[in-house]
Amino acid sequence: MAPPSYARPTLSFLLKFNSPKAPLAAQSLATGSRQESTAFKASLGIESEWAPAVLLTVCSRTAVTIIASAARRLLTKKQNCTTCDLNLPLTEFPRRPEGSTCKHLSETCQDCWREWLAEQVESKHFDQISCAQCSNVLGQNEIRTLATPAVYERYLDASFKATMSAMPDFRWCMAAECKSGQVHSEGDIFCCVQCSHKACVNCNTAWHADETCKVYQGRLIKQPEEEEASARKLGRMSKLCPGCSRRVSKR
């Protein structure tokens, strides 16, 4: 007769702790064959038909007790966050993500990590975002694990834009409301395929339809001088009204 079904889940306990009985237990509990069950009992030196299941059940209960005890310790033990200086449970401190090059202990709480990464994503280049506790640069997996979903999305967007911008012939649309971009390798006029906004490639500005690039650039050079001359002339010919602070003619 095969061991009862309630004994089967305890196989994971044997496998987890690398029990030498695990391979035989796997055969016995998975197949339920009398011959394999008998071999399993013999390997344990037990004669009772149900002894293996009873033993496995005890082992399972012991494992649950150990895990529950460890969980209680994690919930009650506390440490100070080096950033906010709050005394918090260990569960508030994220574990080092897989692939991390940091070797120090986790001494920054989850909330501080999220604030740190939000600021870093806004102010740093996507490949220069550093650890909150050391100067190591963080990788994508670490940022995905430690940041909020919204901040991680902004990080991915910055990474994508930087990668595309590094392409020699790639240009972003200059329209304020458009976020599209495309490869443009020929001609002086860039026309966005998304919104049809036109831009001058040579001047890197909105398309100046009525001016050549030379005339447009010359006007930009002269414009500050003309504005300054106009301001001086206005100062000579007018004054501020003491009542309404508007400029009025000196005549």
From TrEMBL:
<protein>
    <recommendedName>
        <fullName>RBR-type E3 ubiquitin transferase</fullName>
        <ecNumber>2.3.2.31</ecNumber>
    </recommendedName>
</protein>
<dbReference type="Pfam" id="PF01485">
    <property type="entry name" value="IBR"/>
</dbReference>
<dbReference type="InterPro" id="IPR013083">
    <property type="entry name" value="Znf_RING/FYVE/PHD"/>
</dbReference>
<keyword id="KW-0808">Transferase</keyword>
<dbReference type="GO" id="GO:0061630">
    <property type="term" value="F:ubiquitin protein ligase activity"/>
</dbReference>
<dbReference type="GO" id="GO:0016567">
    <property type="term" value="P:protein ubiquitination"/>
</dbReference>
<keyword id="KW-0677">Repeat</keyword>
<dbReference type="InterPro" id="IPR044066">
    <property type="entry name" value="TRIAD_supradom"/>
</dbReference>
<dbReference type="InterPro" id="IPR031127">
    <property type="entry name" value="E3_UB_ligase_RBR"/>
</dbReference>
<keyword id="KW-0862">Zinc</keyword>
<dbReference type="InterPro" id="IPR002867">
    <property type="entry name" value="IBR_dom"/>
</dbReference>
<keyword id="KW-0479">Metal-binding</keyword>
<keyword id="KW-0833">Ubl conjugation pathway</keyword>
<keyword id="KW-0863">Zinc-finger</keyword>
<feature type="domain" description="RING-type">
    <location>
        <begin position="77"/>
        <end position="251"/>
    </location>
</feature>
<dbReference type="GO" id="GO:0008270">
    <property type="term" value="F:zinc ion binding"/>
</dbReference>
